[in-house]
Task: structure prediction
Amino acid sequence: MSDDVGTATDTATTDTRTMRERMLAGDDYQADDPEIAADVRRRADLQHRVNALHPLQDAERRALFTELLGAFGDGADIRPPFYCDLGYQTHIGARSFVNYGLQCADVARITIGEDVLIGPGCQLLTPTHPTDPERRRAGWEGGKPITIGDNVWLGGGVIVCPGVTIGENTVVGAGSVVVRDLPANVVAVGNPARVVRSLD
Result:
């Protein structure tokens, strides 16, 4: 949720970019757009196929994730079910492990570093919506990127909100809600997540 979406003068009548181009540039956009709808259909097909595979079909699953995601690093592993909005906006580094039920609302870029551990049932949420009810009803929305540094560990059920960066080696306790940036080399817990100690 953000007050930033649509606070500038609405330039929709003079802006010649498509809504997809506006989305990818990080500007406010309307999702009811044919290009975005095509992206969503592509994602829906690949996501369904990956989630329907037999658990032992490792090679097929890896091929589908490589097609679905913006990047899927060497040795990375995702345990289905996995859910996303677009897929190509999510980038996962080498050797990262994602447990069951990750939800990537990736209308903006989600960057997951190398050697990251993500517990079951986590949510990485980039979308923003205006608090102004008229603009929200009119379908305007936005997105802010999420960056997870190398060797981060997110415990089960962690929620990461739009625009957040988590520094390398940081541990976020299970069930925490991360609403602002976290530095490297700390342990953070709670709602909202707060740093409780440093890691030497």
Q: What stands out?
A: DSSP finds four helices and 20 strands in the chain. The helical segments are 19-24, 34-52, 58-68, 133-137.
